[in-house]
Amino acid sequence: MAKRIDISDLDAYYGNFLAVEDVNLAIEPRQVTAFIGPSGCGKSTLLRTLNRMHEVIPGAYVDGKVAFDGEDIYAEDVDPVNVRRLIGMVFQRPNPFPTMSIAGNVVAGLKLDRGRKVKKSEFDDIVERSLRGANLWDEVKDRLDRPGAGLSGGQQQRLCIARAIAVQPQVLLMDEPCSALDPISTLAIEDLVRELREDYTIVIVTHNMQQAARISDTTAFFNLAAVGEPGKLIEAGPTQQMFSNPANKATEDYVTGRFG
Amino acid sequence: MNDLTSGLKRRRATDKVATGVVYLTALIAIIPLVSILIVVFSRGIAAINAEFFTSTMRNISPRREGGGIFHAFIGTLEQVGVATLIAVPVGIMVAIFLVEYGSRGKLAAAVSFFVDVMTGVPSIVAGLFIYTCFILTFGFDRSGFAAALSLTILMLPVVVRTAEEMLKLVPMDLREASYALGVPKWVTIIKIVIPTALSGIITGVMLAVARVAGETAPLLLTTFMTQSLNLDVFSGPQAAIPTFVWDQIANGTNPSMDRAWAGALVLIVLVAVIYIVAKVLAARFAPKSK
Amino acid sequence: MNGDKVFFGLSRAAGVFVLLLTLGIGVFLAVTAVPALRENTANFFTTQQWLPDANPPAFGIAALAFGTVMTAIIAMVLAVPVGTGIALFVAIYAKPTLGKVVAFLVDLLAAVPSIIFGLWGLEFLMGNMIGVSAWLDTWFGWIPLFANDQDVYTRSIFIAGVVLAIMIIPTISAVTREVFVQTPQGHVEAALALGATRWEMIRMVVFPYSRPGMISAAMLGLGRALGETIAVALLLSALFEINWHITEPGGNTFAANIALKWNEAGSIGLSALVASGLVLFLITLAVNMAARLIVARKRDFVEGH
Ligand SMILES: Nc1ncnc2c1ncn2[C@@H]1O[C@H](COP(=O)(O)OP(=O)(O)O)[C@@H](O)[C@H]1O
Ligand SMILES: [Mg+2]
Predict the structure, then answer these.
(1) Per-residue model confidence as pLDDT tens digits over B199-238
(2) pTM for this structure?
(3) pLDDT confidence of residue C302
(4) C-alpha distances in angstroms, C177 versus B200, C291, C292?
(5) Which domain, by its residues, includes B29?
(6) Is B120 found in the same domain as B12?
(7) Distance CA A250, CA A252 (A)
(8) Which of B30, B186, B259, B289 best probes binding to C when mutated, by most C CB atoms within 10 angstroms?
(9) Which of A243, B26, B66, B164 qualifies as a cystine partner to B95, CB 3.0-4.6 A?
(10) What CATH number does residue B271 fall under?
(11) Which ipTM did the prediction report?
């Protein structure tokens, strides 16, 4: 599992508005890559171009190339459905399906192409494996058939992670997965990210510098000249170096908390 | 073939079929409307002329051509007018009760619920009610006014709902600013809240008018049909455009069917014009959200 | 201060008036229905004839109930899928501008008066539907419902059901699209991000989330179909017998029967028609109340979390 992503010359638009301009970035497998930068600089937009969720918004499109282990995900014959299956996503606000049980949420993606052909016992295995993978099993194993919406925010977010990894993607994209959570849940998710790093390529957007420093191997810093201007990748490198000795003045100002 | 392009055949096919079906249903919905408009226009235009708008059916036998819709037009105008005159103030008062006074109370919840339920009362039942109550129990004769009362019942819930929606859109600050000046609540409602919501209420009333102007069933039970002009909505038989069409269809002769189609054309144009104007106004006055 | 009291009293009175009105409809209809029901020598619920002004009066609503329910079922079978499809088109599939245009046209269809649906159905659609009915008879005649032994395909329950379907499509699609657009974007995106196709996303998120609203939309449509008068009165041949062959001439409904029999009815006749109207009122009342309660429950369910 776990594959690399190479972004080259990527522009992302909302209609006529250029939100992200000319990004070139390599995302290494089995590493955590963090996107940081002031709000509105296009972190979420870029993240969503990596599994073709960007184009879900009416009028939104991209220009450029995103290679998934060498294959362009924007090639003519690629179905976005396949891309999203291989590159999973966790959102800022936990969004378990309210009409499904906890177990139902976990296997929701799996049921899509396996239908009901899969044996119940196999589903049970996958539910357990995914929930364990998301460090949630012990908390919910007695109420798998209860609605997912009944869980706490942090539990819901881990359920969403379980749901995403149940389909065994290669890459996991996370858009500020802790920003709606309390500190304890945040720590739980951070631990989880460190564990998941063993098996997945992870890209995480965060506005929390300490979090980026704690959990990521590589950090990419984005910035925008002014509101209404496109966001750009300023620099990317090993997290250690980005926080101790960045090449760019703006990066330094940002990581030391002097603006943003 | 690789990870990104493989598989999915069946699922993609299902998705394509679903998309096709959804587009098809949109088409299916448009076909009857277009068909109705074309058929009504092409068959209705034959009997449309100046005489049709200016004369009544008095002394015109079903087998003869000629005659017109004037008496029915006046009847519809008066009946719908009276219905509006009653339904609008009552409806607005109900809405005021729901929005300004009743919020969260048990009575308000009940009223709100039954307003919704009244929206679903069949028009013929409204006619039956006016017949049993106003005519049978209170002893009044069938008249244009009785018909107007049955239309009132159909208008009322629509007026309440739109007025309620519009009152809710009036910002709380506006009311509070007025209270802060020492203006009593009822004056605030009449002088500040209602005028602010008025344009929205008017478009809602127009939609309600468009709805009841085409009603036939309740009129059949509450008025007697006539071929002559009757200006007095309170007594004697009075025609209306929908019952005119009904009557002409019942005659069944060729000239009568021509008149039925012409009446249908007048009715559909009348309703569509009110409806479209209301929609345009609604779009114009809609609070700018987003 | 006093002005406030008076104004409050007035608005409250208006509210109470609405309650009394709904109640009053039931009461006045019931009271008026009593004489006919008392004089009736036949079973009101099972009799398939309508002779209230005969001596002795003998009438029952069996055929009316059958026709009413049957036309409404046909209307629902056709209108629910189509109305749902339109709602999906407007809320999810179409570009916003095209969606708005389609929504406007469908709403306009709702504004067309019943008498025009009736006239159009009678003079235009009925002739054009003969082929469909005959086709149903030829290929599906082995199902009793579609068999046609008379080889006459007009003025049937089937054609009335089709016209009713067209009439209630706007109701169903309007309510349904309201609930569809309320599906939280977060859940839509979650489904897509899991690799669902658009249709799978709809089944996974939109339908489950909208289910109470969809049921309620269908019931509002049903209420309208059950109570529709004039279009049905023009289309059916108003026979007083239950005929399961829905493409054959026949059928009658509560509402249509009232409109058709009203002017020829004597005093017991009128009372009998009111009795049948009371049944119609109670049925539509139940359907509408159920529809509203389902939506209210859903509101609690969503806001409760
Ligand atoms: N759905 C959208 N439609 C139009 N513009 C958008 C949309 N989402 C984001 N944007 C714009 O794109 C830019 C980048 O936004 P975003 O990617 O959300 O930034 P970040 O995640 O770094 O805060 C901002 O200027 C934002 O206003
Ligand atoms: Mg963001």
Answers:
(1) 889 999 999 999 999 999 999 999 999 999 999 999 999 9
(2) 0.91
(3) 45
(4) 22, 16, 17
(5) 2-47
(6) no
(7) 5
(8) B186
(9) B164
(10) 1.10.3720.10
(11) 0.93
